[in-house]
Amino acid sequence: MNSDSLELLSEHACFGGVQRFYQHAAAEIGLPMRFSVYLPPQAAHGKVPAVLYLAGLTCTEETFMAKAGAQRVAAELGLALITPDTSPRGAGVPGETESWDFGVGAGFYLDATQSPWSTHYRMESYITAELLPLLGQALAVDLQRLGIFGHSMGGHGALTLALKHPALFKSVSAFAPICAPSQCPWGHKALTGYLGANPAAWVAHDASALMHECRAAPYPDGILIDQGLADKFLPSQLHPHLFEAACAKVGQPLTLRMHAGYDHGYYFISTFVADHLAHHAQTLLAA
Predict the structure, then answer these.
(1) Active-site residue (options: 87, 152, 171, 208)
(2) Of the residues 24, 264, 276, 280, which is catalytic?
(3) Which end of the chain has fewer CB atoms at under 10 Å, N or C?
């Protein structure tokens, strides 16, 4: 992918750095895709480590950058922030806009295998094989020092992509992730629709199942998860205890913090985002 294909949609000075929003023709998706990048002031002097953030259901490439308040801390630490959109837009798949938890805004960060979704809904390959290499070429982003985190559906994406691509991501964390999609309604709907009805095909996209398959701790520096106890989705959709058990089985260090009073939204994320960026910086800045 040629960096000349990047179209800068807007640019905003922010804490000494720059917040940018881009669009490009995505070969893996077969459609235009949007994403956002925050470059800290240190990027003016050379490549900086970066953290990829994957947003949750119904969100876009703008949500985290506008609501999380992460740029101030990223500027202090010298971290770039990258946020892709949550799904293809304009694919024209019948039914893709009929529900908020499947289709548009709900790509689940996987490559669909079921027709008609398989043509355009290829978020895993788009992120790992196209978007990140493009940014490493076009911007002052050091792909050798790359972390990943996300929220809800994006927390699922962060955990699964980190476990599937440990050579790409050096650090990982999540806010209220869907930890075992093969065992919750959101996951059943998405995995059946994108991958088919055979649960054997779902294992590669289930963080708890993937961790169970590890023979040793894939992230010895530790994984950080924050979860609000007032989150209405916690009992039926998120199941952090299953991921915790899987980590314990393989000796993966996990810090799972449960917070009284906090719900599933961006007030929760903005409260703890500094801790997550510090978690990533500890690994990425030492690399």
Answers:
(1) 152
(2) 264
(3) C
DSSP class per residue in 158-188: HHHHHHH-TTT-SEEEEES----GGGSHHHH
Distant-in-sequence, close-in-space partners of 235: CB < 8 Å, separation ≥ 6: none
The strand pair at 80-84 and 31-39 is best described as: antiparallel
Tell me: the pLDDT tens digits for 116-127? 999 999 999 999
Q: Is 264 annotated in the active site?
A: yes
Active site residue 231: yes
* Side chain identity, residue 287: A
Bridge partners of 83? 36
Each residue's pLDDT tens digit, 7-57 = 999 999 999 999 999 999 999 999 999 999 999 999 999 999 999 999 999
